[in-house]
Amino acid sequence: MSNNPRFLSAEIPEVGGSLTLSDEQSAHCTRVLRLGSGDCVSIINGKGVLAEGTIAVSHPHKTVVQLNSTENFQRNSHVQLAFGITKPASLELIFRKCTELGTASFQPLITDHSLHPGSWNHDRWYKIVVEACKQSQELWFPEILSPISLKDWLQTRQKNRVLVFCDENFRKSAKELVSQAPADLLIGPEGGWSETERTLLKEQEPFVLGLGPNRLRAETACVVALALVKMRLGEI
To answer: Is 151 found in the same domain as 66?
Structure first.
């Protein structure tokens, strides 16, 4: 896998074809990275395709890339991160750092102690995810799902997926997680889980994952827990 600068295109033609970068990406290519005709670049679509190409026309608004090769890659992660909605600054860290680690999707949750946003800025979070994927060379963009209540999510989630539950009241793991099944990783908001939610979650018979003796902020807990689950599932 090359270290060429990466650009995004929803549609990637066959080898020998060409594509035109968007106005924003063309400007970044020519004015920021100062790439010109003949320079090598990579094109991704966020769905596992990596194309290598050469700049045929260098233009700050319509840079044209000639494709030399394409390759398809399988998704590296099958972990969904479900988390209580917290402050925007913390959300940015969660989306950025967990994308770098590798996750299949993000499920924001409305819980008893989470923030209840009047609106959800999907475009902002998606832009952060795309930037993180380019930086980390992740070829599959994680899906950002719409916020949903914890109760509704538990009712609709796929039951064949392992439910991994983190709670500050349980600092040690109840048992070892040994599984290759897809997993849903559940992290609470800054205020933690209410007793009503704990009772509801116990009914799901989840695997309880301990994150150590220190009290972690929500965004730190997401990163630490995701790394631990990925390691146990063989994704790291």
So the answer is: no
Q: Given the DSSP bridges, would you call strands 6-8 and 49-57 parallel, antiparallel or unpaired?
A: unpaired
Query: Model confidence over 6-29: pLDDT tens digits?
Result: 999 999 999 999 999 999 999 999
Judgement on whether residues 118 and 24 belong to the same structural domain of the protein: no
Place of tokens 């390691």: 231
Sequence-ordered list of residues with C-beta below 8 angstroms from that of 164, at least 6 positions apart, any chain: 177, 183, 184, 185, 186, 206, 207, 209, 225, 229
Q: Using one digit for the tens of pLDDT, what is the confidence trace for 62-119?
A: 999 999 999 999 998 999 999 999 999 999 999 999 999 999 999 999 999 999 988 8
11 and 97 belong to one structural domain? no
pTM of the model: 0.92
27: domain range?
6-72
Q: Which residues contact 28 (CB under 8 A, 6 or more apart)?
A: none
CATH of the domain at 26: 2.40.240.20
**What kind and span of H or E run contains 109?**
strand 105-110
* Residue that terminates a domain, selected from 53, 72, 91: 72
Chain length of the chain:
236
Torsion angle of alpha carbons 89, 190, 221, 111, nearest 10°?
A: -100
Cα angle for residues 192, 157, 180 (degrees, 5° grid): 95
- Give the C-alpha separation, 133 to 95, whole Å: 11
Does residue 101 sit in the same domain as residue 160?
Answer: yes
- The one-letter code for the residue type at 144 is I
